[in-house]
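Problem: given the chain below (196 residues), write out its structure.
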Amino acid sequence: MSNDMAAKNYFSHTDSLGRQPSTRFAAFGYTYLPSGENIAAGYADAQNTFNLWQTACDPDSSGNCTYAHRTNMLYAGYKVIGIARAYNANSTYRWYWVTDFGGVVDQAGAGALQFSAATYTVNEYAGSATITVTRAGGSSGAVAVSYATSNGTATAGSDYAARAELCTGPTAIRQARPSPSLSSMTAHLKAMRQST
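Solution.
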């Protein structure tokens, strides 16, 4: 959701496909209740964003403060949380944050995805990078890995072909290979777990 808001320059709980949070959660396989969502924009760091959610008035139709964001964060019925932050220098707020809350731990034993490195760099004329992802500690549910190339000393479009991809699979995803024609590029990685 944060990536969607940053890429498409909007700020709303309704995503670019017209889905409210509960509909979006269900589309990704999380159909449990209770569930909730906080969104924020403008701050690069987690502390200021957290403080915003903690102190936001969130007035009701009568103008009385509801502190709805704080209520979401403190609700004892929530057992899981997903936190995301995205950046787009060309968008209104630049930084976009989302926290999604759920009341059910849906995949105990799903394990964790681990990259062999936080970033991968390809030097000029090197050809490609191999991004290695392993799954440890469990194997239930499907997994997905997304990556995108970004400029280092080379420029996308003139020095190399920019690439972004979402790889999915029922078990561990072993390798994803971005192949720029030539560059010093970095693959930025994000791992997510999806239920099936």
